Amino acid sequence: AQSVTQLGSHVSVSEGALVLLRCNYSSSVPPYLFWYVQYPNQGLQLLLKYTSAATLVKGINGFEAEFKKSETSFHLTKPSAHMSDAAEYFCAVSAPFTGGGNKLTFGTGTQLKVEL
Amino acid sequence: EAGVAQSPRYKIIEKRQSVAFWCNPISGHATLYWYQQILGQGPKLLIQFQNNGVVDDSQLPKDRFSAERLKGVDSTLKIQPAKLEDSAVYLCASSSHSGSSTDTQYFGPGTRLTVL
Prior knowledge:
The structure holds two protein chains of two kinds. Chain A is mainly beta. Chain A is built from no helices and eleven strands. Helix content of chain A is 0%, strand content 58%. In chain A, the strands form two sheets. In chain A, strands 2, 4, 5, 9, 10 and 11 form a six-stranded mixed sheet that branches. Chain A has a five-stranded antiparallel sheet with strand order 1-3-8-7-6, with no helix packed on it. Chain A is globular and about 40 Å long. The mean pLDDT of chain A is 91. By secondary structure, chain B is mainly β. Chain B has strands spanning 5-7, 10-13, 19-24, 31-37, 44-50, 53-56, 65-68, 75-79, 88-95, 106-107, 111-115. Chain A binds chain B through residues 9, 32, 36, 41-46, 49, 51, 90, 92, 94-97, 99-109, and chain B through 4, 31, 33, 40-45, 48, 50, 55-56, 91, 93, 95, 98-110.
């Protein structure tokens, strides 16, 4: 079974500062990892995904994440925060399971606040 | 390209009543997912369809929840009877391929259910 742990349910940064959202995974097989963003009253939108190609993955809106197998981590970063980045961010893991299909297991989310 | 559509956006019911949610996936997407997102938690997969067949419903409370995807397009999720703990946002997602672990899932805006 696979799972993800997001450290910090709330993160606050100043506009222009580095954004770092932490995600650690647990998986018995090579994982595929995803970061999704959720704005208020909206569905989830994919930021980026790791599918065993390059370990440094670049996504939309200037976000990137690095897969580190030795640390079982997939932290999300952005060099300079913008007010529009304020949202909830979810890390998710998937792996093939018996019977086929793609089961995404989500973390509990990190609410990002960006202050002036 | 139109996104995943869901209706209604909001629903308030009394406990023991019935409720149904509707989802229209992105055109041509073969795989459809229903998730339950309780406040403060990440989405949890309830059921996954591949065309009109169920791939995974292991976390669907089958004594009260049911779902169908007639003709492999639209889907309906029903709760009968509802309990207080069913208060949540119900998210529908779709993906284009065969449910591969690397598929990107596209989410609708969700239906927020409040059970009083």
